[in-house]
Sequence to fold (493 residues):
Amino acid sequence: MNAYSNVMDRLRSTFSSGKTKDIKFRKKQLEAMLKMFEENRDEICSVLNADLRRPKQEGVVFEINVMVNEILHLLAHMDEWSAPARPTKGLANLFDDVLVYKEPYGIVLVIGAWNYPIQLSLVPMAAAIAAGNCVVLKPSEVSSHSEKFLLEKIPKYLDNDCYQVISGGAEETTELLRNQFDYIFYTGSGRVGQIVYAAATKYMTPVTLELGGKSPCYVDDTVEIGRAVRRILWGKNSNAGQTCISPDYILCTKEIEKKFVEEFKAVIKEWYGEDVQKSPDYARIATDGHFKRLTTFLTNGTIAAGGRHDPDDRFIEPTLLIDLNPSDPALQEEIFGPIMPIVTVNDVHDAIDYINARDKPLSMYIFTNNAKDKNLMIASTSAGAVCVNDTVQHFASNIPFGGVGPSGMGQYHGKNSFDTFTHEKGCLEKSINFFVEKLGDARYPPYSDWKETYLTSLMKFRNYWKIPYFSQIVMFCLGIGATVLYQKYRNSH
Fold:
């Protein structure tokens, strides 16, 4: 027994009743979640601004739009994705039903993150609902206004017997993890991810860990540098750089570095004016501790642009660092803020070697119009995802999103979200009639060389099973053959 035993018992009872498995019920809950966004749009923007000084447009684009579109995508395809699949059959199963049923895991724990406190909590929660699970949501306590919003609104819009929101910090999360969940979805740091993973192993609970890392951004001389810098800085400085997939550092030649610095200064002035701190379009660092950590990076290398900061306002100006030593913390730790180091390389091969000598990143960015170099980088490196000639946009593209190695495990978005919270249960349904029994009779003792040859032929993989309706065609032909033989038998008697 622990503090959350009653919550778990309530959800376990609900799931056992089959309530959340009903497709109409799932759709009703997702539609209610959409209604929550429609009716509380302004309040969502307000709590994001209170937590992160998030500009309204960033709140709408990165939180509300991503969330709404994910729900709409789930609603549009839920019937299709929930239906039993019928994989290709071999000759041995020609007269059988081969099915893959899509069933929910049970009770899912979703642990959200503070940097995108609404979207990173509710996107996985919506997918778990769509798949038919009960859900315990643990939002981040760091973004306290967003946490309060979720605690108040979700019980008003969603079924409380199926979905619960738990508040609290590290102590409450630790207590929560002592319970036996059927799936855990965590977004956050690698350090806490290891704790979550260790807790999951007690019950052999499957997990998705959305972590982070140092996402490299390679820029060569074939792209228009002005457009490239704008796209890079948008991905880097949105939410003041507190994005797990923001470009962490630049890889380029010394020649490109000079041009990048000049364009950097021009773009920052264009977007935020002479004094970035006075701009309404620039967010703030979430906590004093995170601010303090980030400012230590400002002593690494040389500040080529930016560098101003104000602890009272938790403000750090978009900053570009050059001439760093490989051992500098800014090149060793994930930055997670508006500070961007530049690492100079000789060419694309040098850049590939640099990336491969480090942990596999959550994202990799390539700015080039050279198809050969682009393909070489994609083929020669490993990352959770790749985005070419832009940054961050792949997050909302319904392609698999997730890390590899230290940057995480598992993936979601689009169909991958539904699949993450779905167990695929294979099922073989065989007829027990005389004809089918005789076809498989050779499997029984006593064994013989003839039986072995027959079974080997029966089980052999044949690529022509990919022909549409092949098994139906074969059965139709067998039916005609059986009819002809029957007629001959009757005529002869």
